[in-house]
Amino acid sequence: MTQPTKSILLAEDDRFLRRACETKLKQAGFDVRVAVDGEEALTMAREQSPDLLLLDLLMPRRDGLSVLATLRGDPKTKEIPVVIMSNSSKDLERQKAASLGVVDYWIKSNLSLQELCDRVSQLLQKPK
Amino acid sequence: MAKQTDRAIAGTVREHDAALGGLIRSNPLAILVVDADDCVQLANPAFEALFGYREAELVGQPIAAFIVPKALIDEAAGLSRSGFEGRTARSVTQRRRKDGTLIDVELTVVPLATSGSAIGAYGMFRDLTEQKRAERHLRAQYAVIEALAQSSTIEAAAVGVLRAVAESVEWQVGAMWLVDKTAARLRCVDFWRADGVDAAAFERRTRESQFARGVGPGRTWEMRDAAWIVDVTKEPKFSRRESAAAAGLHAAFSFPMLLDGDVVGVVEFFTSMVLQPDPAILKMFAALGQQLGEFVGRTRAQEQLEHFFTMSGDLLCIANFDGYFARVNATWNRLLGYTTTELLSQPYIELVHHEDREATAVVESTLRRGEPLNAFENRFRCKDGTYRWLQWTATPRLDEQLIYAVAHDTTDRKLLEQQTQETLKMRNDFVSFVTHQLRTPLSGIKWMLELANETTDAGERSSYIDDARESADRLIGLVNDLLDVSRLESGKLQLSLEPVCVRELTDGVLSDVATLVREKGHAVTVESEPDMPDAVLDLQLMRQVILNLTSNAIKYTPPDGRIEITMGSRGRALYWSIRDSGIGISPDAQKRLFEKFFRADNAHAVDTEGTGLGLYLVRLIVERLGGTIGCESEEGRGTLFHFTLPMTAGDPT
Questions:
Q1: Which string of DSSP letters, residue by residue, matches B341-406?
Q2: Which of B90, B155, B279, B323 gives 20 to 30 Å between its CA and that of B385?
Q3: Nearest to residue B593, comparing CAs of B612, B573, B568?
Q4: What is the residue-wise DSSP string for B77-93?
Q5: Residues B141 and B209 in one domain
Q6: Does A2 reside within a domain?
Q7: How many structural domains compose chain B?
Q8: Could you tell me if residue B175 is inside a domain?
Q9: Do B606 and A90 touch (CB under 8 A)?
Q10: B608 chain-A contacts, CB cut-off 8 A
Q11: Residue A128 has pLDDT above 50, yes or no
Q12: If we measure between CA atoms, which residue out of B334, B376, B375, B335 comes closest to residue B356?
């Protein structure tokens, strides 16, 4: 019983974190695309409709919350599941993200790559 | 009408008297009979008692010569004439006793007639002395009450009181004394003398005098009772004897002003006559002494409150229900800068900050319903246009339609609260910002090591470890910046001064960032004066300034930009500047550019790794070296940063 490869869009401006995540998720067999800033994330999300968007908050050109709000305002993209991956633990940002409908909110430094990968797998195995 | 003989009249009268059962002789009214020439024919015993004349002294004599004061001769003749003409007449007037004193009398003249023709007249005198005295005393009481009512202090009331009392007893001079508890002396508060009394020297002497308990008016103080001196000029103990004699003053009496049994003052009066003690006068003034003492007590209590009103550092006021202040204390003038007139002449709501007016109006209507107010805060405009926060406590008086209110100036506390909140917010922002900035390279290190650990490929592993090291370098850089900032802020950073060639330093920095410049395709030019002297600076700190400014120019200038560095000496100062063709800085952002953790919005869009510490650190270093830094910029066009330093750090430029 083989499942179609799940696609993940990873929006992360820090090149070290981006490289690490991308490497790990690809090793786990996911189809991973990366965006280096908010604008790119928005464009790619619209074009590819990924199964999951891993979205950083603090990014150049357009911040994560703005990307999220724009996606939610467009019928074509509003169903894309989004997980916020940030190192900011401001309550206000959590609340804003929650109000825009996200699957989860993860603090990067608190996760190992393995944990991150396991959580992603778990999310993507769930039937829609 | 034939004139009857004197004897005939006397006979007729005696007949009348007998017929009436001795009505004339035994009448308690003083009765006099005169003939048609106004000569005395008869005086009854009551007349003798009242006027002091024996009947025998008067009979046959014209009455006007004895009992009529000179000024009243015409009046007396007119009254007699009425009687002779058969008419009854009545007058309230004065007559003279044998001893010369005047007495108030009600005189009724009745015709004396036989067979229908008048042959003389009866004069009936009712003694009005007591009645007149009672009236005068009543008038004096009213006058005293009036004087007290119109004055807020006994000092202000003194002259009015003295005049009222002296005039009521027809004495010529009065003085009021108050007890000075600290000095244990009586001091003269005020002095009054009737018009025409030449008592200037006595007044001066009295006003200058102070008396201990038991001496002079101090005797009344000691005895707590009224005292009478028949003649002060004969009283060896009376210290003002000579000046009193010169003023023609003789009898004196004094009475204490009593408050709850304590003597608070003494009132004394003097007259030009030698007089024996008059119990009626003494009795009357015992009551007055009580009244004056209580007034002193009341005004002192009021003065004490008045003191609080004036002294209070709080703003005290009484406001009318119509929205105007009725009274304000001096703190209002001091704190807000208005005169009392300015405060009372406009509705006070106009002084309230417009944002607080609605709430103030609500509170006012609550007060007007009779409910007290607690801890309400609003802002009042000062004369200089600034505002002060006031915290109010107020109580309404419905019967008076007044609001009594106390306001405490809480501006400083409000400011402190605001500052504390700002400080707290800044600290929170700092913590969450630093947390984020530290977590990112930490995550990088952690994940790269995790990947390195998992791979079997040696090349891959070493590349992961390189990335981990680079993340660690970024982390260290951040921590170092934070540490530098902290040291510079606290002034603990030690400078290590040495001669520095700024041109060489700049070139060195540029070669360090050459890769970045090349990647972005910027054209960089450096211009310096040919024989610029070395500056005495801290090399490491200086390098950091130039590196930060150069990195910023590279980072915030879109590819293929232009960067120009200029330097030179200006007198004893070193000038250094860097101009780029970058994204620029908005006017609002320029104002906050050198603040800790400040990052312009457009800077953030270019790069999220910035810490908001770079320019702050640059400013701290330049200032530490004794210089100044500035910035000129236009959004979208580029930015010029420039700083000036003393050629020797710390010297004046």
A1: HHHHSS-GGGGB-GGGHHHHHHHHHHHHTT--EEEEEEEEE-TTS-EEEEEEEEEEETTTTEEEEE
A2: B323
A3: B612
A4: HHHHHHHHTT--EEEEE
A5: yes
A6: no
A7: 5
A8: yes
A9: no
A10: 13, 58-60
A11: no
A12: B376
Q: Is B440 exposed, middle or buried (0-12, 13-18, 19+ CB in 10 A)?
A: buried
Could you report the per-residue pLDDT of B542-588, keeping only the tens digit for each?
999 999 999 999 999 999 999 999 999 888 899 999 999 999 998 88
| B607 inside 8 A of chain A by CB | yes
Both B587 and B531 in one domain: the answer is yes
Q: Is residue B147 domain-shared with residue B275, that is, in the same domain?
A: yes
Last residue of a domain, one of B80, B112, B127: B127
pLDDT tier, B2 (very low <50, low <70, confident <90, very high otherwise): very low
End-to-end Cα spacing for chain B: 133
| Beta-carbon pairs below 8 A across chains A and B | 67
Q: Tens digits of per-residue pLDDT, B193-251?
A: 999 888 999 999 999 999 999 888 999 999 998 889 999 999 888 889 999 999 999 99
Looking at beta carbons, which residues of chain A come within 8 Å of B441?
16
Task: Confirm or reject contact between B504 and chain A (CB < 8 A).
Answer: no
**What is the pTM assigned to this prediction?**
0.51
Asked if residue A1 is part of any domain, the answer here is no
CA distance A59 to chain B (A): 6
Percentage with pLDDT > 90 across chain B? 56
The answer to whether A13 contacts chain B (CB < 8 Å) is: yes
Q: Are residues B157 and B269 in the same domain?
A: yes
Mean pLDDT, residues B34-53: 90
Same domain flag for B84 and B106: yes
Is A20 within 8 Å of chain B by CB?
yes
Task: Please choose, from the candidates A62, A64, A80, the residue with its C-alpha nearest in 3D space to the C-alpha of residue A72.
Answer: A80
Q: Pseudo-torsion of CA B196, B200, B202, B208, nearest 10°?
A: 150
Of B490, B519, B550, at which residue does a domain stop?
B490
* Residues B392 and B280 reside in one and the same domain: no
What is the total count of domains within chain A?
Answer: 1
Question: Is A108 an interface residue toward B (CB < 8 Å)?
Answer: yes
CATH code of the domain in which B282 resides:
3.30.450.40
Give residue A52's domain range: 7-125
Q: Do A19 and B607 touch (CB under 8 A)?
A: no
Domain extent for B391: 312-409
How close, in Å, is residue A128 to chain B by CA atoms? 30
Q: Are B146 and B292 in the same domain?
A: yes
Query: Which one of B435, B436, B609 makes the best mutation probe of the A interface by having the most chain A beta carbons within 10 Å?
Result: B436
